[in-house]
User: Which sequence fits this backbone?
């Protein structure tokens, strides 16, 4: 309980403690043998890529944290993608 209104904050404590996120947009090509990789497996490949390169990334909260990676399109299996975009929160 806050007695003095000047000590009250406008944002919840969880938002104040969180570091500002940087977003990086990655462009890649999905062709050749990579076109036979499903979208779900491609997400795991990007997660492994970030972990092996030791790049600090933001994860979701909960029992099964996953990296915050957003793909512009989920291509079907066997479809070639020339200018694919993935956005990663660091």
Assistant:
């Amino acid at each position: 309980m806050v007695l003095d209104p000047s000590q009250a904050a406008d944002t919840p404590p969880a938002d104040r403690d969180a570091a500002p996120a940087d977003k990086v947009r990655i462009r890649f090509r999905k062709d050749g043998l990579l076109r036979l990789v499903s979208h779900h497996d491609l997400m795991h490949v990007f997660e492994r890529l970030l972990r092996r390169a030791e790049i600090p990334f933001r994860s979701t909260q909960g029992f099964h944290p996953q990296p915050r990676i957003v793909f512009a399109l989920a291509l079907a299996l066997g479809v070639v993608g020339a200018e694919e975009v993935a956005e990663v929160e660091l």
Summary: Residues 39-52 form the longest helix (14 residues). The first strand starts at residue 23 and ends at 30. Residues 22-89 form one domain.
